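User: Predict the complex.
Assistant: Input components as received:
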Amino acid sequence: MSDVAERVKKIVVEHLSVDPEKVVEGANFIDDLGADSLDTVELVMAFEEEFGVEIPDDAAETIVTVGDAVKFLEKNAA
Amino acid sequence: MFSLTGRKALVTGASGGIGAEIARALHAQGAVVALSGTRAAALEALAAALGERAHVAPANLADRASVEALVPAAEAAMGGLDILVNNAGITRDNLFMRMKDEEWDSVLAVNLTSSFILARSAVKGMMKRRFGRIIGITSVVGVTGNPGQANYCAAKAGMIGMTKSLAAEVASRNITVNCVAPGFIESAMTDALNDKQREAIMANIPAGRMGKGEEIAAAVAFLASDAAGYVNGQTLHVNGAMARI
């Protein structure tokens, strides 16, 4: 697992208080990890802080799984 | 019981009568306050009178860029923001049929849109910190309506609806969003009334007097406190029994 993926996983586990084993690449934040829409906003804010990037709203809307977040951050994080 | 020690509050319209009383009350309960308004000299004078724990953050709420910059400036000055009081308001009264687009637009912009932008900006940090108080100063006329004030009443009613929606969205994050709805309060706004208007108003206030700014401020201080943590999405009417709603 890449460094980015590890950091993403840590944030997701902390924010959603979920079992780390459930935080797999294909896990959907809402359907699989029990997030509500406000949680997804908070996750995006947490990713922005952790990785020092700005995630515009239209990009945030495309981040629906753990893998989406990792992919976006690997491409855009400094 | 209603201590605000350690809390950081931004009050808009703090150069006006009610806003200054709100700032005083929050400060007296121990909060750090950022005073916003258009009249820098009045803000400086208030900050000097309050002494420590007072910052000045001038802004023109009719100017969108100025509104956008206000919360970040207050957060930078105080090291965070726990309490936002959207108090600033203007009137451009006119009969409905004579009301100009500009009168409608300017009242909606300053009284409602700025409150939206400030709350949107403030709620981010509040969500992170898992604490927040957003308090809008609406008006009794936002609920009852008032001839000659369609713009003002629409903005104040809009603030109540916005407050209820935001409260429902962020209550789970320990953030409360409420309104205080003053009736007739002694202020520059009501000083402008003539004797006849004043008499007519008094006839409708069972308390037999106008309210005082500090009585609005006390309601705000209550809603800002930890004690009011379960009061959410509400409008607290402070009007001497003028409207029982």
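The radius of gyration of chain B is 17 Å.
Let me know if you want any component modeled separately.
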